[in-house]
Amino acid sequence: MKAVHFGAGNIGRGFIGEILFKNNIEIVFVDINKTIIDALNEKGEYDIALAAPEAETIHVENVRGVNNETEAEKVAEEIADADIVTTAIGPNILKFIAPLIANGLRQRLENGNHQPLDVIACENMIGGSQQLKTYVYDSLTAEEIEQLEAFIGFPNAAVDRIIPMQSHDDPLFVSVEPFSEWVIDESQMKNVDLKLEGVEYEPSLEPFIERKLLSVNTGHATVAYTAKMYGYKTIKDAITDERVLSQLQNVLQETGQLLITKWDFDPAVHADYQATIINRFKNPYISDDVVRVGRTPIRKLGYNERFILPIRELAERKLSYHYLVDTVGMIFHYDDPADNESVQLQQMLQTQPLEDVIKEVTGLEDATLINEIKASVEKYNTL
Ligand SMILES: NC(=O)c1ccc[n+]([C@@H]2O[C@H](COP(=O)([O-])OP(=O)(O)OC[C@H]3O[C@@H](n4cnc5c(N)ncnc54)[C@H](O)[C@@H]3O)[C@@H](O)[C@H]2O)c1
Ligand SMILES: O=P(O)(O)OC[C@@H](O)[C@@H](O)[C@H](O)[C@H](O)CO
């Protein structure tokens, strides 16, 4: 069996690659990073190390690479006879790779390949694969879509494993935390016979992606933005500061209330889930930069993202969202000259009224919430 995986970065090599390899699937990584693609083709294998006292190593083989910048037509050829297509490339990039996937699906039609195939976006976002589907369909005709609908699935997924930025002599080597979780929405699959060992299949993904995004990612981002405010460079250093830890705990308390109320999670089980997350952030064997976790702040301030979604839904339920709004105030001050979205956000704040910027980046229309965020941003003007 063969997988085509878009994004040979941290989670691509450090988690999706591990699972596909363990299921005896050949992996064709598609990426624009020449160094990584050349190394994959030269070596055909790489190592993953678990960041833990035992330092277990996982050896991944049967991998190769395709550079989609220079070999776009090859990507379509690989998709034409693939058994599974996955992505871990970043939510903002999905629209750019969608035409490549569309070409591959078109080639399947031309070849008469009607084998069912699932295209699975493993990104930190709600409804990632379904979003990718709309981008892919933008590049196909109505007739092609009608034919493909029967056998191409876009099941949503949630992936969880903290993998920091890597800097090793070997460009393929990747150090990862031991914890991992990959959940796929079974109801949206077309190739139901291909169930990967190490993946959890659920009849509905919504509770799982919301639990992950609003706990791991809201919490992680809270640590990053609070850390930046207090001058820390890494998550593990920042979390030793009582002010950062308490901001994290307060935010998790709020998202936990929402998740328990909305999805009926057992409060005790959820408390354990949160405690595990906090311990993962403290992992002394991982050095995760604040700038990685805080990256792309405009995306993170989105309407269906890790802060605004829970704020909206807690407000609807008349539950507390004070600490979430407080953290949002810090995000508007997040200043990383190496991050395009941070630069863009700071430029917007210099040239437009604050209220307009809040409306534009969060998509909020509710005057009360906009005013509360405005007050929170202004509170941090003096720091
Ligand atoms: N690292 C983590 O801890 C983690 C965990 C869970 C989920 N995720 C999610 O996985 C996705 C990838 O994150 P990551 O940390 O692996 O990022 P990364 O930057 O390490 O990897 C992304 C890869 O995509 C490639 N890429 C970018 N634009 C491309 C294009 N147009 N065509 C082909 N390749 C392109 C980059 O070269 C890079 O190799 C994100 O959605 C992230 O939220 C990350
Ligand atoms: O990848 P992002 O930018 O959406 O979020 C940054 C981190 O919170 C994220 O990558 C986590 O490390 C990961 O989601 C853990 O599963």
Would you give the CATH topology of the largest domain?
Rossmann fold
Separation of the first and last Cα atoms: 55 Å
Q: Helical proportion?
A: 40-55%
**Widest sheet, order of strands:** 5-2-1-6-7-8
Name the CATH homologous superfamily of the largest domain.
NAD(P)-binding Rossmann-like Domain
List the helices and strands and how they pair.
Elements: E1 2-6, H1 10-22, E2 26-31, H2 34-43, E3 45-50, E4 57-61, E5 63-67, H3 72-80, E6 84-87, H4 94-110, E7 117-121, H5 128-138, H6 142-149, E8 152-153, E9 157-160, E10 174-176, E11 181-185, E12 200-202, H7 206-229, H8 235-238, H9 242-263, H10 267-281, H11 290-293, H12 297-300, H13 308-316, H14 322-331, H15 340-351, H16 354-362, H17 367-379
Parallel strand pairs: 1-2, 1-6, 2-5, 3-10, 6-7, 7-8, 11-12
Antiparallel strand pairs: 3-4, 9-11
Helix pairs in contact: 3-4, 4-5, 7-9, 7-10, 7-14, 9-14, 14-17, 16-17
The structure holds nicotinamide-adenine-dinucleotide and D-Mannitol-1-phosphate.
Short description:
By secondary structure, this protein is an alpha/beta fold. The protein has helices at 10-22, 34-43, 72-80, 94-110, 128-138, 142-149, 206-229, 235-238, 242-263, 267-281, 290-293, 297-300, 308-316, 322-331, 340-351, 354-362, 367-379, and strands at residues 2-6, 26-31, 45-50, 57-61, 63-67, 84-87, 117-121, 152-153, 157-160, 174-176, 181-185, 200-202. The longest helix has 24 residues, at 206-229.
